[in-house]
Design goal:
mainly alpha
Length: 57
């Protein structure tokens, strides 16, 4: 029974480590795309908030 629990704990830890690596990769991709499209994203955000400020609701 102890070996079974150790095996489950080892598998859980290795999966958790892979999830952290995947999250780190996704964050790096998001930052990279943000740097590439910085001007377009800035224009989009400015347009959206400008339209929201002009709207009467």
């Amino acid at each position: 029974m102890d070996r079974f629990l150790v095996r489950i704990g080892t598998k859980f830890r290795s999966q958790e480590g892979m999830e952290l690596v995947q999250v780190a990769i996704l964050i790096a991709i998001a930052v990279f795309l943000g740097l590439i499209f910085k001007e377009k994203i800035g224009k989009f955000v400015n347009n959206v908030f400008g339209d929201l400020l002009k709207a009467d609701f």
